[in-house]
């Protein structure tokens, strides 16, 4: 089948099987490749007939009145604007694996992976929203709130309507979505659509930067400096792997030049690097 002919899938299968050989009992290893083949050939294509809705509230989002209904995401506040809620459509790869993976160790490994793969898709779409809120409003929200719902639905022509109905039910929203966008709200929608946290580099950049902002707010300044510098490190990795920016000279300087950073911006980032090194020295 086409999915197994994809070289990236073959690479993934090979690495996953190597991992199984080092971590599972011999009896389970002999069953692992066969089960994985069945999952990749049959289960993953079949699971495209279903989707899951994840709906979560964002911490520290009180007062926001922004609504968006996209193809795979819904954003709206509850009726009292106490929380901004985000709903996303995610894959159902982690459902129904028990009947394929009969061995308990094989099931644990494969179901664990596809559970977190599905979660990664959902989390990435929520991170796009959180990163955009930070960029436009200066807010540092967190999706690890106190409310979450995951709902399974069969894909059909009415999927979007079912998604909206599920969102309104879980958030107790009984009024229409607010769609009038002022200038800042237009910018927010633009950046939500522009970010692509499914890319692991973008995801890690957003995660480290948002974590730094949160640490600064809580006055954990040393940890915030470290997290900020980690953000720059990931940007360097992105430049090296995705933009082929690599050389024997200073990688950071090459990266900042490639991103057309101004001299004063480079100076600030150099200062950030020096402060981090100083903190490492005094902690040694």
In short:
The protein has helices at 2-5, 7-23, 26-47, 104-137, 159-170, 183-194, 200-217, 221-242, 251-258, 263-283; strands at 50-58, 68-69, 73-77, 84-90, 148-154. The protein has 284 residues and is α+β, with helices and mostly antiparallel strands. A hairpin with a 3-residue loop joins strand 2 and strand 3 (73-77).
Tell me what you see in this structure.
- Strand 2 and strand 3 form a beta hairpin.
- 60% of the residues lie in helices and 11% in strands.
- It is built from ten helices and five strands, in the order αααββββαβαααααα.
- A five-stranded antiparallel β-sheet has the order 2-3-4-1-5, sandwiched between helices.
- The N and C termini lie far apart (55 Å).
Question: How do the helices and strands line up, and which of them pair or pack?
Answer:
Blueprint: H1 2-5, H2 7-23, H3 26-47, E1 50-58, E2 68-69, E3 73-77, E4 84-90, H4 104-137, E5 148-154, H5 159-170, H6 183-194, H7 200-217, H8 221-242, H9 251-258, H10 263-283
Antiparallel strand pairs: 1-4, 1-5, 2-3, 3-4
Helix pairs in contact: 2-3, 3-4, 4-6, 4-7, 7-8, 8-9, 8-10
**What is the helix tally?**
10
Total number of beta strands: 5
Order of helices and strands: HHHEEEEHEHHHHHH
Radius of gyration: 22 Å
Net shape: globular
Helix content range: 55-70%
How would a crystallographer describe the biggest sheet? 5 strands, antiparallel
Key words describing this protein structure:
5-stranded antiparallel beta sheet; alpha+beta; globular; 284 residues; 5 strands
